[in-house]
Design a protein that fits this description.
By secondary structure, the protein is α+β, with helices and mostly antiparallel strands. The chain folds into two domains: 1-88, Arc Repressor Mutant, subunit A (Orthogonal Bundle), CATH 1.10.10; 92-150, Ferric-uptake regulator, C-terminal dimerisarion domain (Dna Ligase, domain 1, 2-Layer Sandwich), CATH 3.30.1490. The protein has helices at residues 2-14, 21-31, 39-49, 55-67, 112-130, 146-149; strands at residues 37-38, 71-75, 81-85, 95-99, 105-108, 140-143. Strand 4 and strand 5 form a beta hairpin. Helix 3 (39-49) packs across helix 4 (55-67). The longest helix has 19 residues, at 112-130.
Length: 150
C-alpha cells in the first residue's frame, strides 16, 4: 500500500498540501475500486470505520485532490459529482457509457486510438480558431444499458 502513496505524497506536498488521515483514506478508497464514487459514497465507506470524518471534510478533500490534478470530477447527470483517480495502477485511458435509466457507468477502451486522433485534430483546430489552450476533454455517451432495455 505504501507504494501507491509515493507519487500521491509528492504531488500533494509540491502543491503545498498536507498529508492528513482523511486524505490518505480517500486516496486508498478511490485507488481500491473501479467505481466512480460520489462524496456520499465515500462518506458511507469511511464512516463505518472512522465516524469522526465528516462529509464536509470529504468534500473539501475531494476539491483539493481535483485542484492538484489527482482526481477527475464527473457529472454523469444523476445529481452527484463522481470522482476517479487520474493516475491509478493498471488504469488505461478510457471514456464512459452512462445508462439514463439505472445510472450504470461503463468504462470503455474501444476505439480510443481513433478517438484520440479525432480529438487532437479537433483540439488543434479549435485552439487555432479561438486562440484557446485546451487542457482536457471528456467523452460521455448516454443511452440505455442492455439490462434496462429488457
Amino acid at each position: 500500500m505504501q507504494e501507491k502513496y509515493c507519487s500521491w505524497e509528492e504531488k500533494l506536498k509540491s502543491s503545498g498540501g498536507r498529508l492528513t488521515t482523511p486524505r490518505k483514506i480517500i486516496f486508498y478508497i478511490l485507488s481500491s475500486t473501479p467505481k466512480h464514487l460520489s462524496a456520499e459514497d465515500i462518506y458511507f465507506i469511511i464512516h463505518k470505520k472512522n465516524p469522526k470524518v465528516g462529509l464536509t471534510t470529504i468534500y473539501r478533500t475531494l476539491d483539493v485532490l481535483v485542484k492538484i490534478g489527482f482526481l477527475n470530477k464527473f457529472d454523469f447527470g444523476d445529481g452527484h459529482s463522481r470522482y476517479e483517480l487520474i493516475e491509478a495502477p493498471n488504469k488505461q485511458h478510457h471514456h464512459h457509457l452512462i445508462c439514463r435509466k439505472c445510472s450504470k457507468i461503463l468504462d470503455y477502451t474501444d476505439f480510443i486510438e481513433e478517438e484520440i486522433k479525432l480529438v487532437k485534430a479537433t483540439e488543434k483546430a479549435l485552439s487555432r480558431k479561438y486562440k484557446f489552450e485546451i487542457k482536457d476533454h471528456v467523452f460521455q455517451f448516454y443511452g440505455v444499458c442492455d439490462k434496462c432495455k429488457k
